[in-house]
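During the second half of the funding period, the structural biology subgroup turned its attention to how the target accommodates small molecules. The most pressing case was adenosine-5'-triphosphate, which had performed well in the primary screen but for which no bound structure existed. We therefore specified the complex as follows and requested a full 3D prediction, including the ligand pose.
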Amino acid sequence: MSPERSMLDVLGSIADIANDRRLEFGIKLNRILMAITECMQVNKSSIMLFKNSKTLEVVASTNPEIVGVQQSLDVDSPSSWVVKNKKPLYVDSSSQCDIAIKRFRHYKGDAFFLVPLINNNKVIGVINVTEKIGSDRFAAAERDILLHIMGHVIIALENHRLAESLQKKKKTLQKKNLELRKLEKLRTDLFNMLIHDLKGPISEIVANLDILSYTLTENENLAFVETAQAGCNTLFNMVSNLLDIARLEEGRLELMHEQIDPGGLIKDSLAGLLVSVKSRDLTFQEDFPETTGACTGDRSLLTRVLQNLLTNAIQYSPTGGTITVGYREIVTGAIEFFVEDEGPGIPEESREMIFNKYKQLDKKSDGRTYTTGLGLAFCKMAVEAHGGRITVECPETKGSRFFFLVPSKKKST
Ligand SMILES: Nc1ncnc2c1ncn2[C@@H]1O[C@H](COP(=O)(O)OP(=O)(O)OP(=O)(O)O)[C@@H](O)[C@H]1O
Ligand SMILES: [Mg+2]
C-alpha cells in the first residue's frame, strides 16, 4: 500500500474513532495510537497529555505498564524539550544536537520522533514514536505523515474536550433547572394558597356590604357602599381568575358538567354586575332566540366567562352605551354565547394576543381601575376546557363582539 493511501486510511479511521460517541476517552486514545503505530510501522509509541500545567501524563502507550506514569516538565527529557520549544524532535544515530546525544541511549540506539500536540498556540500533549520496524531511522516523508496525522489527533482531542465541557455544563444546567423548578413550584403553591385564602375574607366583606346596602335608604351613604361592593366584585373576580388559571394550567380543575339553560346562565351572570353599571347609565339588551336551547357545561366556570366579558364590555362602553348579550343554538346542544358593546373595538392585529395572560392594550392611567390582564386568558382556558373556542370580531363602525361556543359534546374535563 502506498504511503499516501495508508495515510488516508489512518486519517479516516482517526476521524471515525474521534466521532464515535459511544467510545470512552481512554479507548479512543488507544485506538488512535494503534492507528498511528500501524501507519508509522513502529514497535513503540505513546501519547502524553498535560495532567496539570507542570506535568505530563502517559495516557496511551504500546506498553500498557507505563500508562499513568507522570513526568515533570522540570526534568530534562525529550518530551520536556518538545513542550518548551513547541517543535517536533527527531533523533537518529546521525543526529548531532545536545539533546540527541544525551538522550539517545534511552531509546536503545533506535531513532525516535516526538511531535507536540498544539492547539490554539498551546501545547496540550506529545506523541512519541520509536523502534521503526526494519529501519534505524524515519525518512522525511514518514515524519511528514505523523505531522499530518497530528492535526487530526488534535481535532479529536479538542472535540472530546468540548463534548466533555458541554456535558458538564448540561449537567450543571439540568441541576439548576431542577432547583429552579422546585423553587417555582414552592412559589406557585404559596401563591395559590395565599390567593385561595383571600377568597374567604373577600366573601365576608361582600356579604356584609350586601346586608348594609339593604339597610340603607337612598341617601349618599348608599353610593359609598355600592362603590365598595363594585370594588369587592372586581377583587373577587381577579382572585378567582388567578386561582382558576393556575388550576387549569396544572390540569387540576375538574369540570362539573350539568345541563344548562343559556338564558338563565346569562341572567345569573348579569346579576352580580348591575351595581357596576348603575353609575355609567348603560343599557343591557338581551338577544335570545325564540326557542330556548340547552347545553352541557360547568355552570360556575361559564358564568365567570360571561362575567369577565360583561365586565370588559362595561369598562369599555361609552357612558349611555348599550351592551347586548345573548346566545344562539348552532346545532342541538351546541350554544354560541355573545357579548357586544359600543366601545372602541380592538385593532385587528391585537385580536389574538388579548387572550394571552397579562396582555393589556391600554394601561389604565386613572389609578382607580384595577385590572390584571387575566380575564380573557381565563375565558380562553375555560372555554377550551369545554372543547369550545372564543373569538372577537369588531365591525368597522364601532364596538366589539366577543363570542364563544360551548359544543354539544364535552371534549375534555
Ligand atoms: N370589550 C372590549 N373593548 C375594548 N378592548 C377590550 C375589550 N375587552 C378586552 N379588551 C382589551 O383586552 C385586554 C385584555 O382584557 P382582559 O379582560 O384579559 O384584561 P383586563 O380587563 O385588562 O384585566 P382583568 O380582566 O384581569 O381585570 C384589555 O386590557 C383591553 O385592552
Ligand atoms: Mg377583563
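Two results from this model are relevant to the next phase. The radius of gyration is 40 Å. Residues 140-215 form the longest helix (76 residues).
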